[in-house]
Amino acid sequence: MTRPNRIISLFAIFIILFLQTAAQGYAEGEKNKKQILIIYPFFETRDWDFDFNTGYFKEMREFDEQEVSISLEFLNTGSIHDEISIEEIVARLKQIKKLHKPDLIVSVFPSVHAFLIDHGETIFPDTPKIFVPVIEAQVDQLEALPNSYIIKSASQYAIKRNIEDIGTLLPQTETLMVICGN
Known about the structure:
By secondary structure, the protein is an alpha/beta fold. It is 55% helix and 16% strand. It contains 6 helices and 5 strands; from the N terminus they run H-E-H-E-H-E-H-E-H-E-H. It has helices at residues 3-32, 47-64, 83-99, 110-123, 139-144, 154-169, and strands spanning 34-40, 68-74, 104-108, 129-134, 148-152. Strands 2-1-3-4-5 form a 5-stranded parallel beta sheet. Strand 3 (104-108), helix 4 (110-123) and strand 4 (129-134) form a beta-alpha-beta unit.
C-alpha cells in the first residue's frame, strides 16, 4: 500500500470511529431524555389549529433544551367509525410505546381524551397523562384515571360567566341564543 493510500485509509478509519463514537454518545443522550408524547385528534387543518400548535410548541421548546424529547401523534379521530379503526390506532400506539416508551402523555382536545378514557390504561398503564383543554362533561371520568392531570379551558368559564351576567348588564334581555362549538 502506498503512503497516500495508507493515509487515506487511516483517515477513513478515523472518521468511521469518530462517527460511531458520536452516534453512540447521541444515542445515550437520547436514551437519558424524558420522552413526552403529545397526541392530537387531527393534523392541523384550520388557522386556529395552526395558531394553537405554534403557541404550544413555542412554550415546549424551552423544555426541549432540558433533556426532553417531544413526539407527536395524530389520531385522526374524525375517521374513527368502527372497531377496526380503533384496533388499528391501539396497535399503532402500542408500537410507539415499544419504540419510545413515553414518560408523559399530553392529550390535546376532547376527542383524544375520550379515546384515552376508553383505551389509555390498556396502552399506557402507569404513564402520567395531562389532558388539555378539558370539557366539563369529561372531568369526572378523567379525574378517575390513575396518574391523570387535567387543565380546564378558561373559555368554558368565560361563556358561563357571560351568560350569568347578561341579566345584570342587559336587564331588558328576554331571549338569549348561544352558538359555539366546531
